[in-house]
Write a structure and sequence with these properties.
With 311 residues, the protein is mainly alpha-helical. Helix content is 70%, strand content 2%. The protein is globular, with a radius of gyration of 23 Å. The structure holds cytidine-5'-triphosphate and ligand LZ56GOFG. Cytidine-5'-triphosphate binds next to helix 9, strand 2, helix 10 and helix 11.
Amino acid sequence: MAAAARPVDVMSFPSCSSTSLLLSHSRSLPPATRSSRLAPSSPASSMRRQLLVGAGASAVAALAASAPPALLQDGAATLLTTAGAYTLVRAFDALTERRLIEQNLSRKIVHVLSGFLFMSSWPLFSNSTQARFFAAIVPLLNCVRLLTYGLRLSTDEALVKSVTREGKPEELLRGPLYYVIVLLIIVLVFWRESPIGIASLSMMSGGDGFADIVGRRYGSLKLPFNKKKSWIGSISMFISGFLLSTLMLFYFSCLGYFRVSWDLAIGNLAVVAFAATVVECIPVTDVVDDNISVPLATMLVAFLLFGHSSH
Ligand SMILES: Nc1ccn([C@@H]2O[C@H](COP(=O)(O)OP(=O)(O)OP(=O)(O)O)[C@@H](O)[C@H]2O)c(=O)n1
Ligand SMILES: C/C(=C\CO)CCC[C@H](C)CCC[C@H](C)CCCC(C)C
């Protein structure tokens, strides 16, 4: 039986005092060191610049000293996770650009890693009530990003190349946008205290992602009722979705976010994974995108099985 459910602050960022210490350290650098990083200038303007830098650092230090640790922690976690999302897309753009990975595989690996890494980052956020809203900023920013480039209000070749099938910006407004909206909903509605959100995100990212990766390559034996899908793809979805759901449930229960009765949970997760796999392979996904139908089906079945009881 996992530890009693008590949120655990798994990571505390430097306290305000050490943050201000870091900032005050930069003020204590000898003027020559600081000014050598700037273009050569007259003594007067160099003095003005040093005063401005000092004043800015003091303002930041004062702000940091007054902000509660949880706010600092959530702000830092949001920045870190946002940077992680940007880096992930850029990395797969570079791989695709160099033809080290084909576009469809790049898209699906980003599909799998985005959900998994985002979920894994949740313990970086504090245990305060505002934490989930900070975490929600990350998918929200990516919603805005996908809308901006999908509507051609601006261009981002890297994003288009790493997350679309055919390299058309308007593709961003379908699968990727639905995916990120689902992430936003899961964070706001379920967060890290419920296996329902964890299972839904696992089935959408890990399950559906591997169904495509494996099915597209080895799926010669098609399903009798859906020639676009294969047995190996569906089996891969069930196995990968079940394993990722179990792994993430173990991860969050070990960190103390909820208790899990594993004798019940394993069976429940298997039923949830089976239901999501059935939904994914029936032709309904021609009408409703997998990134909507799979998490919705998972949420419904997981709610019926896990409900609000101890898990
Ligand atoms: N159960 C499954 C699921 C997918 N596939 C393979 O993976 C491809 C893409 O699967 P799908 O989930 O339909 O991907 P889409 O959602 O259409 O693609 P995307 O997510 O990129 O929009 C299918 O054509 C098929 O070759 C499979 O064989 N069996
Ligand atoms: C290709 C995708 C779906 C199509 O089936 C996934 C699109 C992913 C988005 C472009 C980026 C989403 C980033 C997440 C909101 C946060 C990830 C953070 C993590 C630390 C990398």
